[in-house]
Amino acid sequence: MNKIVVPAKIENLQKVLNFVNQELESVEYDKKSLLQLELSIEEAYVNIANYAYESEDGDVLISFIIDENPTQVTIQFIDCGTPYNPLDNEDPETFSKIEDKEIGGLGILLIKKNVDSIGYEYQDGKNILTLKKIVDD
């Protein structure tokens, strides 16, 4: 398992994506799966950066594990911010006109649609969001 700790700020998103891409250099993966994984990581990280710490600063620990047969990536986002389970919310309705929609919720829906599993737990004062994605060809 490899890890990176970054301040939960939008400007660190590229650092997080670079870390993930560097970790994936050792495996073969499907390009579509990589794009889905990157989109999911971006959505999860941006939500943490925007909402976890309200007006204070804080860090995000991101761990990365690769399992084989099939090749599956597990990414955990761990922060000490405000407790928030994104899985508690119902998926937003996506069939109405865009001007009639409420703001929010689409990021979590995108993550759910693009990874094989998503989990959340609050443990020892920490939010732990876990994404799993099979990236084989």
What does this structure look like?
It is built from 3 helices and 5 strands, in the order βααββαββ. 20% of the residues are buried. The chain has 137 residues and is of the alpha+beta class. Helix 1 runs antiparallel to helix 2 (31-51). The chain is globular, with a radius of gyration of 15 Å. The mean pLDDT is 87. The chain has helices at 13-24, 31-51, 106-114; strands at residues 2-7, 59-67, 72-79, 117-123, 126-134.
Distance between the termini: 22 Å
Shape: globular
Approximately how much beta-strand content do the residues carry? 25-35%
Strand tally: 5
Protein topology:
Elements: E1 2-7, H1 13-24, H2 31-51, E2 59-67, E3 72-79, H3 106-114, E4 117-123, E5 126-134
Antiparallel strand pairs: 1-2, 2-3, 3-5, 4-5
Helix pairs in contact: 1-2, 2-3
Concise overview:
By secondary structure, the protein is an alpha+beta fold. It has three helices and five strands; from the N terminus they run βααββαββ.
Features:
alpha+beta, 137 residues, 28% strand, globular, five-stranded antiparallel sheet, single chain
